[in-house]
Specification:
The structure holds two protein chains of two kinds.
Chain A: H1 5-30, H2 37-58, H3 71-87, H4 90-108
Chain B: H1 12-43, H2 50-58, H3 62-71, H4 77-87, H5 91-102, H6 109-114, H7 118-126, H8 135-160, H9 173-186, H10 193-210, H11 216-229, H12 231-235
Classes of the chains: A mainly alpha, B mainly alpha.
Chain lengths: ~110, ~240
């Protein structure tokens, strides 16, 4: 440990506070009967946009110019999308895609 | 909120049983990442119970990995506060998106909002709970299951991480896969497709312009800007 136990707890609480602020703020500001129309609108259109953000966010550190060239990721993504459009079974698509990706990075693209 | 009686459509147990299958991808992903976190913390001298305490109190995934840096340099709680706000700023969008779904849940809203992470948002915002099951209890079950997985995985990692020999490389891809599948579910209705595309395009642009470490806030700003400016187009 680099910090004293008390300092560690202080950092922990600071991180928790900063995080909780991001979780509570929208509710504290806008969760009432006459909320601004813009907020209602954003609540409706944000979810698909945020899921897009999360997909890219997860893949942000994929190296595209070094060996592997993002191929395992690309193959797994195509497989997940195809599986899901075909059977529309969440667990099958996610499970299948994850196992395929594990095989690719552990056995194929080493 | 005050005291109010809320009619529950089903028991918590029934909702929990319905919710469990939806949480399984997160079980796989959180086990890998939570164990990795426990091991990493132990490496830095924060063995049991520190890592578990961090997971239980902060419950903020990637930010906890960032926080390892904060624990191993000069003591600066203000920087920790500001950094965790910035890194987790995406949660601001989760609250806006879930406001209507979490409304009318009374005291359940405290745990629902406290435990609002990426994966919980994604499922609670994209999945329609089964008809016969109480929605509030369903959302709470997802939240508690994800929280339980994360804390348990951290515990396993900090206690016996070094004993694990199974090669889990790539298993955390389960979380990427979860987001991809829920993205597909979100853009199934035609009217959602433009917004989904805006989210992808703005985040890719932010990645190119600002790099992998600083993309979240610029991406959010761009998404907001495009959604607000293009409001007329998106409303039709």
């Amino acid at each position: 440990m680099y910090l004293t136990p008390l300092q560690t707890i202080a950092i922990m609480l600071a991180v928790a506070l900063g995080t909780q602020a991001t979780r509570w703020l929208p509710f504290l500001l806008f969760d009432r009967e006459n909320k601004p129309q813009l907020v209602t609108y954003l609540g409706r259109v944000l979810p698909p946009a945020v899921m897009g953000l999360l997909v890219v966010y997860c893949l942000r550190s994929t190296p595209l110019t070094a060996p592997r060239y993002g191929l395992p990721e690309l193959i797994a993504l195509v497989a997940i999308a195809a599986l899901h459009l075909w059977r529309r079974n969440m667990l099958l698509s996610i499970g299948g895609g994850t196992v395929l990706y594990m095989l690719l990075v552990q056995l194929v693209f080493i | 909120m005050g005291k109010q009686h809320i009619e529950r459509k089903s028991s918590f147990a029934a909702a929990f049983r319905a919710a469990f299958p939806y949480s399984m991808p997160v079980l796989a992903g959180f086990m890998v990442l939570g164990i990795a976190y426990g091991i990493l913390m132990a490496d830095k001298g924060y063995g049991f119970p520190w890592a578990v305490l961090m997971s239980a109190v902060c419950f903020c995934g990637s930010m906890q990995f960032v926080a390892i840096t904060l624990l191993t340099t000069a003591f600066d709680p203000l920087a920790a506060l500001l950094l965790s706000f910035m890194v987790n700023a995406r949660h601001l969008f989760y609250g806006l998106s879930l406001m209507d779904r979490y409304r009318g849940q009374g005291a359940l809203r405290f745990p629902l909002i406290y435990l609002l992470c990426d994966e919980t948002f994604s499922i609670n915002c994209s999945v329609e709970p089964p008809e016969q099951v109480d929605k509030g209890y369903f959302y709470l079950s997802i939240s508690l299951l994800h929280y339980g997985y994360w804390v348990t995985a951290t515990l396993i990692g900090s206690l016996l991480g070094s004993l694990l020999t199974f090669d889990t490389t790539g298993m955390d891809f389960a979380l990427t896969a979860l987001f991809v599948v829920l993205f597909i579910e979100q853009i199934r209705p035609k009217e959602n497709r433009l917004s989904g595309f805006i989210g992808l395009a703005c985040t890719v642009l932010a990645l190119v312009l600002f790099g992998a470490d600083n993309l979240v806030v610029p991406a959010m700003a761009m998404i907001l800007l495009v959604l607000v400016v293009g409001r007329k187009r998106l409303c039709t």
